[in-house]
Structures are given as C-alpha cells and as structure tokens.
Amino acid sequence: MPNIKPVNPQIHPSWLAVLQNEFEKPYFFAIKQQIIQDKLQGIEIYPPGNAIFNAFNLTAFEQVKVVILGQDPYHGIGQAHGLCFSVPDGVKPPPSLLNIFKEISDDLGIVFPPNKGNLTAWAKQGVFLLNAMLTVRANQAASHQNIGWQQFTDNVIRQLSAAHSGLVFLLWGRFAQNKSQLIDTQKHYILKAAHPSPLSAYNGFLGCKHFSQTNKILASLNKQAIDWQI
What we know:
4-stranded parallel β-sheet; about 10% strand; globular
C-alpha cells in the first residue's frame, strides 16, 4: 500500500475540527490526486483552488441556520466561486439563479440589482451554500461527480444534522431531495420543491415560498431571520 499523506485544505477552524478525520482518509487523498492529474493534463478546474471551500469559510459550522444544497459547480469560465447557485461580482446570473431571485421577489417583494448574483451576503448570515461536488472540469458538467466529493459532502450533511437542531434544509430537485435520508427529520426542517432550472422551475419551484417559510421557521425558533437581499 502506498503511503497516504493527509490533505490539509484551507478551511475554517470550526469545520476543520469536525472534518479532520475525513481529510485523513484515502478517498480524500484520491480527490486531490484526481484534481492534480486533471491540471497536469491541461484541464481547467473550477472553482479556483482558493475558493473550493468558500462556503465553509464564509459560514462557520456553529453559525449554520439554513442549508441550500446544489449539485455541481458552474462549469463556465469565471462563474464558480465555491457557493452553490452563486456567481462572483461582475458575472451575469445564470438562469437558475434568476429563477431563485424571481421567487424571492414574488414571495417577499425584494427587488434584486440587475446583473448581480453574488450570494456571499446570505452565507455571512448562516445560509450554508453547499454543492454536493466541490469541483468540476471546465465545460464538463458533473465531470467530478464520481471522484469522491459526494462521500465528503454526505458526511458534511450528517455532521450538521447530528450536531445542530432546528436547521432548515432547502432541497430543490430530485438530486438534492435524495439527500434527505442523511438528515434527522425529528430535529430539522426540510422544504422540498422542484429545481429552479428553467427546465423545471414551473413544476413547483416558482410559488414554493421557501424563503418566507424559512424566516417563519427561524422566527419560531427565536433565531434571526435571513435578509434575502444581496
């Protein structure tokens, strides 16, 4: 057996304390090796290395109140920055994000600035914006779906479920909803709807009112509501 070296990602200390054992497992070493191999072959990987754990670094483990689960980082140039559905400043919001903004506008009357889709303000309030896969090859959707990331992020969801109570999980689309088996439904709230993609948003995402429902749940728990403006 080869000597497996532990991987030490740049991640918030609160998450490091929870996930240290995962970073020391062979599968996580294999994730790193796959990314290195792709880069050696000249394949561009998104998001940039310093943004892979952006969701973890912006929302400390003990500060999580709401979890939005995405599937895969955006695979277009400059779009992914480590927060599901979010894009950096200066990047046009993709269609799914525009539908999220449309639903929030209809639900809460918030008007969003045009051509802005950076959700960092949500993350700083305790909205954990987690993709099930944390990396992707440029222009190849779901290209890192089977390299080990789901083992890692499934454990992240389990850890959140075990350590917290009263979290609100927003699960949009079948892929995200399948993760509900990782969540203790006796302790947490799960809101389900169709995915906000233009292919499915009109099948139940638009009109779901998840954002006002989330704030009602938080208020019932004496937690600060989320300001969904960006």
